[in-house]
Amino acid sequence: MEIRNLNRPRGLINPQGEYLPQTFRDLAYRGDLNGGANLVYIGFARPGTSEGDLAWQIFFITYAGSTPLSITWPVGADGTVSNDFSFSWTARTSYTYA
Predict the structure, then answer these.
(1) What is the 3-state secondary structure (H, E, C) of 71-84?
(2) If you ran DSSP here, which 8-state letter would residue 25 be given?
(3) For position 49, what pLDDT does the model report?
(4) How confident is the model at residue 75 (pLDDT cuts 50, 70, 90)?
(5) Do residues 39 and 67 touch, judged by C-beta distance below 8 A?
(6) What CA–CA distance (Å, rounded) separates 8 from 48?
(7) Is the separation of the CB atoms in 27 and 20 below 8 Å?
(8) How large a percentage of the chain has pLDDT more than 90?
(9) Exposure of 14 by Cβ count < 10 A (0-12 exposed, 13-18 middle, 19+ buried)?
(10) Regarding predicted confidence, which is higher, 17 or 43?
(11) Where are the extended beta strands (E) located within 3-97?
């Protein structure tokens, strides 16, 4: 297994070299209903990580009513969409998702 990001928990990599999020076993979880009944923000980090640390993987779910339509990832400081563990859970609503 190749280690690309020291903030990223250990997980399996597919043949294309991409991490498989469902294989991570040592993650803390946060979810945000954003005032409604739908889970719109989901975040994962190593256990013990502060919610303000730049060590969270966050994604945003778009809904039509109660049906999820898409999952998008935040745009990082370099302007590219990223699923890295390099975002702050407390700043999740301030990121642009694409």
Answers:
(1) EECEECCCCCECCC
(2) -
(3) 92
(4) very high
(5) no
(6) 14
(7) no
(8) 52
(9) exposed
(10) 43
(11) 28-32, 41-45, 57-64, 67-72
